[in-house]
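=== Discrete structure encoding ===
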Amino acid sequence: MANKKIVCSSCGTEFLFEAAKDFECCPVCGVLFDGEVNEAQDEGLMYFDEIMRFDKEPERSGVCVFCKECKDIRFLNLSLFDKLVDKQYVILKPDVVVKCRGCGKEHTPRKILYKRKDHYVSILHYCPVCNSTMVKKISTASRFFMAATLGSFAIPYNSKTYECQNCGHIF
């Protein structure tokens, strides 16, 4: 029974059986243990890699999650979460259901674990301000035209590579 674990049915947190028998409820979400002893299980479909908070526009604050199956990226608003522990885990509210837009599978546990995902930035570009994937590459002709019309005032524009179609941010 050394490798057996108790898994919280609410948030998905795993505890070693020996350590968990001292608790009546999950220390993460407070739900009573149902007493089932499970083998180590997969943590679910989704992972997150960033919690973004905007003080001036809190409605834009959220968590960037990605699907481990199809690598689809999704942005979830902070209002969907009960608890946020940056670089560890986030817990969805009880009534929230998250489905992957790419493969259509549902993330079943309430807990979404942190996992760094570096390689999607080079494959799929997204706006650092609004997290939109509707970005376009600034063409060389456009840069040349700006330099010809604005002269040295076009240097900040010409040093950027992409422009967001959603919010207009140039990065």
